Amino acid sequence: MGLSIGLVGLPNVGKSTTFNALTKAQNAEAANYPFCTIEPNKAVVPVPDKRLAQLAKIVNPEKIQYSTLDFVDIAGLVKGASQGEGLGNKFLSTIRETEVILQIVRCFDDENIVHNEGSIDPIRDVEIIEGELILADMEVLSNRIDRLKKQAKADKNAKAVLEFAEELLEFLADGNLARNYDKTDTDEYRQLVNEVRFLTDKEIMYGANTDEEGLEEDNEYVKLLKAHAEANNCELIKLCAKVEEELIGLDDEEAQEFLTEMGVKESGLEQIIHKGFAKLGLMSYFTAGVQEVRAWTIKQNSTAPRAAAAIHNDFEKGFIRAEVIAFNDFIENNGEAGAKDAGKMRLEGKEYIVQDGDVMHFRFNV
Predict the structure, then answer these.
(1) Could you tell me the pLDDT band of residue 132, with boundaries at 50, 70 and 90?
(2) Euclidean distance between CA atoms 211 and 71, whole angstroms
(3) Up-side HSE of residue 321: CA atoms within 13 Å toward CB?
(4) Buried b / exposed e along 119-129 (16+ C-beta atoms within 10 A)
(5) CB within 10 Å: which end of the chain, N or C, has fewer?
(6) Nearest CA to 18 among 203, 218, 277, 271?
(7) Per-residue pLDDT for 111 more than 70?
């Protein structure tokens, strides 16, 4: 299971610089962190997880396989994108294919970099982008309402969904995001989401692109954006595209030392992944053998058979049981043999809920 994050933002806010920096952040260790550009605006990058290195130190595998994350760089949106301005329709359709929207917002002054709107105002920028997303949702919802009106003449269920859709349309028309609607837990809403795939229903993270000084201490722009994020139950990630570029080519120890000097604990990439995983309810479990040590991304609260399906669907169909060692037990006992001798290996059945970091081996029959 991959995680796809679409980077959006107004032109000239540092979005493409951020994209280029983030997607090449691990390029220095190409053998262990494969980087592959699939399209000019899409890149697949490894999910940084220090636990894999710890496992590999014990197992000494032929290779390490990280989970991957898709970054999609969506060309700068402008006013009127929902009506096709700036090729807006094409890029809005690309956003629909992502799970998370990361909106890059400029939060620094620099007279040498012209802002598309003529001044620095993060809330205005956010409202422009989200306004276009809302308008796009209103258009597809209006089309759905037209079809529901015809169906409602002979279908009571369609009539109920129609009434709900018209109420939701009014909510959007007031400038609200679909994800903030107070009836998102209803069957009607879920039905519409499946049919319409609202842009504003997606998880949203704000990337406050600041200068180096703003990394250490929030400037006024960051404070404004942070307050907006909190009010809308969205994550805010503070980063500096220039700093992210500086991290390219550094090994883990050098990168951490550089970040520490900047007063930062995690890189922008690490923040995006950790918060993105949390927002989508994702986690990783591991397999560890001499051929490879590998991370597998699954939904939180997945049963052992469901987790096995991440490797192959046949593993779920023919699941018998799973051999499980908690990550800390695997490390503390220097591997599988030591963990087994210490009584730390467990045999779990179909009802077992996999925990983040579990080291697993599946027994199955097909």
Answers:
(1) confident
(2) 23
(3) 7
(4) ebbbeebbebb
(5) C
(6) 271
(7) yes
